[in-house]
């Protein structure tokens, strides 16, 4: 009787060990598969980061933040670029509030709407690119700006383009 109990306990222990071994093996294989998937994702994301960094470099080519010569120009004039750029943007956007037609946009707007500048990119210490729209028509402006001795900003339209309706 004692031998049978020990035999049943031994068989039960073997079955329990077998179950534990198979379960552990499945968990181990699953975790290895997850790690392999994560490694693939990491490589894919690294490639994406490289592509995005290249795009950032391309976009910073024609922007004030990436133009050391333009920044040096303002520093030589005794101006802080960090303070000046928001002022340039604000004054250009404030032209949207002018009565009547927009002072820089040379195109008439559609009925009941006004041409407004929607986005601005300061290229360097002299030039700005801007988008404008009235909700129906849109286009782009190439604007020169200068800061006179008094500290006033003067904007001058160099070129403009109105996209045709589709």
Short description, anyone?
This protein is of the alpha+beta class and about 170 residues long. Helix content is about 50%, strand content about 20%. It is elongated, with a radius of gyration of 33 Å.
Instruction: Indicate the proportion of strand residues.
Output: 15-25%
Number of helices: 3
Sheet with the most strands, sense and barrel status:
4 strands, antiparallel
Q: What pattern of helices and strands is seen along the backbone? A: HHHEEEE
Spatial order of the strands forming the largest sheet: 1-2-3-4
Cα distance spanning the termini:
95 Å
Description:
The chain starts with a helix and ends with a strand. It is of the alpha+beta class. It is elongated, with a radius of gyration of 33 Å. The chain has helices at residues 2-61, 68-76, 81-94; strands at 116-122, 127-133, 138-147, 153-162. A 4-stranded antiparallel sheet has the order 1-2-3-4, covered by helices on one side. The protein has 3 helices and 4 strands, in the order αααββββ. The model has no long low-confidence stretch (mean pLDDT 88). Helices cover 50% and strands 20% of the residues.
